[in-house]
Input
Amino acid sequence: MAALKARLEKTKTKLEQFQQNPNDPSPIENLTKEDLSGDLMYAGILGYFASVDSSDQLAAKTGKQVVAYRLPSYGVFMATAQPHYWFGIVRNVSFPGVTMDVDRITIHTEAKDADNQKRIAYIRQIGSAASAFEHAVPEQLFADPSKPTTDPSQPQGVSAVKALAIAASQGQKIYTLNNKNQAYHASIVASLATDADSKAEISNALYAGKEVTVHQSDITAYGWKGIGYIILDPDSGAGAYKISGGANGGTLNFLDSNAGVIGLVAAMIGSIPVTSGLLPFLVPLLAFTIAAALFTVGLILFLDSLDGGPCDAGALAAYVALGIVALALGALFGSLALAAWVFWFFGFLADGAIRSTFNNVAICKQ
Output
């Protein structure tokens, strides 16, 4: 810890020197990615385990009912990489935040009077505290010391227990599902307004005899959307404290991932030579409908990538203009449906260019 603290102080000093005189880059010339972010991430996970250990020992000494010793545990504190896709192909990557992921935190605990219920109660208590530290430690690490902790501009994180607390404050129902209310498990899990993966994991846990605490629908908080839930082993008190994000939907994901192929299919449909009945009208219409659907999906994904900055309107106008050009090119090729493939191809090349161009305009950095 002392060596890490010394490295962080050294890096801080160099950054402050450069901030005072930006025209002299010499203080930061030898700084590496490990100096700038690696040590910070390492400090975060060490701070987490230090906080958990202190809290666990304090709880044991205060209650005077159990004896507890830390066993080998591990976790990571990392930058979150969020890929941005253009119809199934990664176009660029952003880093919207950080993630505390503690895969294993174990402790050997025995009640002084050999009462197993006291041991279980202690493990459940420290489990909830450990979950809370997963949002509290990053918040403290990145907090602005010049502002009060209650300032809304201070960074905020989400953990399983915090997600449940937010949901409760919004008036959501909080379900505790166990072997005493098995008759209601299927209907309650089916009613949860969250992603299918979370519901499947909850169902599997209940089938295995675990106890699950979950709120009824996704929350949106601090730029994050998802659900928080706790899976506990009723026989030991050990548990998994989890959060999970929602998805855009199966149809949208399918079109996104297969747009190149779908566009070519549309082009072939639109090029079929037909001369009888309504087919000369219906076949191109079908092909154009597919092209329009792909354009709509691309527009939705592009809108989702905008961050609310002052240049979003210009970026959106450029993107729509790109779609119109693609439709015109498709028409010139003899089939409006060919626009689907043309739009995908040129859009892949131009999507990042549009975003980076508008992000680098001076007004967009204000």
About this structure: Residues 158-246 form one domain.
